[in-house]
Amino acid sequence: MDYKINKAIRVLVIGDIMVDHYIYGNCNRISPEAPVPVVEITKESYTLGGAGNVLKNLIAFQSQANIVAVVGEDDNASIVFNELASINIAKQGVITDPNRCTIMKTRVLVSNHQLIRLDREVATPLLPQKEQEMLAYLKDHIMQHDIVLLSDYDKGLLTPVLLNGIFAICRENNIKTIVDPKGDSFSKYKGANIIKPNKKEAIVASGINITDTESLTAACVKISETTGCDSVVITMSEAGMAMFTDGKLTVIPTRALGVIDVTGAGDTVSASLGVALASGYSLYDACNFANHAAAVVVSKVGSATATVDEVNKQVILG
């Protein structure tokens, strides 16, 4: 199949946006002050992470995208706004909250190996005032979009109240929602159309150890019952992807030819499913597209993205 993504589709991402900060350097000595390595910095870079990585994948597919998120009232928020501007994403849906900090993950790399990661974040639940501010924005702009992707990194943004409001608004306007979930209970996602956990998340949320087709089906049934969703899609790394819809399980084998780095593959799957479904493909074909897109990005280093041309080449190879 030669996939064609409708460039006119409009995708809204709602979730935890963050800054991925990379510090690169050389390490040739131990500090005289303590038994720790001394890194001589050679360069630094900043890029969008979390829900921002979903945005980058959507842009790589040449889709139109927007985001609803929260940042702090700090210098790192400026980095988020600058990065959004660089990919032509409007910042109007990004709410500023002085009680939070902009999430930043700083990684120190030496010879392409991560030495340490430093996280700056506030993961307390979003205040009711900010929840209502976001829901008001969503009500005013929902009809400008064809599908909504929720990217939950469990950083306090997607509270049960906010999620309930999002699902109500989307269903009222016949807008499909896809959730990349987090946490040990998926009941807060009740009302979503598609739930897309990875295998580990599905095991934790369902309480069922997935070891074979029978247990995989049982986990999907449990998640479906808990959330009332239409479909469950579980990514399973080298075992491929499982799709559970209309009471039927379908497993799509992995398409990866070589795995270098799995960072951000889940974000790629979310974006791929969203653009394929919004372009009119069936869930099976959308999962197949996402499976091939994931195969492309895991063959690259870092939080990579895939283009439609790359996916179609992967389809031919697969």
Automatic annotation (TrEMBL):
<keyword id="KW-0808">Transferase</keyword>
<dbReference type="GO" id="GO:0016301">
    <property type="term" value="F:kinase activity"/>
</dbReference>
<dbReference type="InterPro" id="IPR011913">
    <property type="entry name" value="RfaE_dom_I"/>
</dbReference>
<feature type="domain" description="Carbohydrate kinase PfkB">
    <location>
        <begin position="10"/>
        <end position="306"/>
    </location>
</feature>
<protein>
    <submittedName>
        <fullName>D-glycero-beta-D-manno-heptose-7-phosphate kinase</fullName>
    </submittedName>
</protein>
<keyword id="KW-0418">Kinase</keyword>
<dbReference type="InterPro" id="IPR011611">
    <property type="entry name" value="PfkB_dom"/>
</dbReference>
<dbReference type="InterPro" id="IPR029056">
    <property type="entry name" value="Ribokinase-like"/>
</dbReference>
<dbReference type="Pfam" id="PF00294">
    <property type="entry name" value="PfkB"/>
</dbReference>
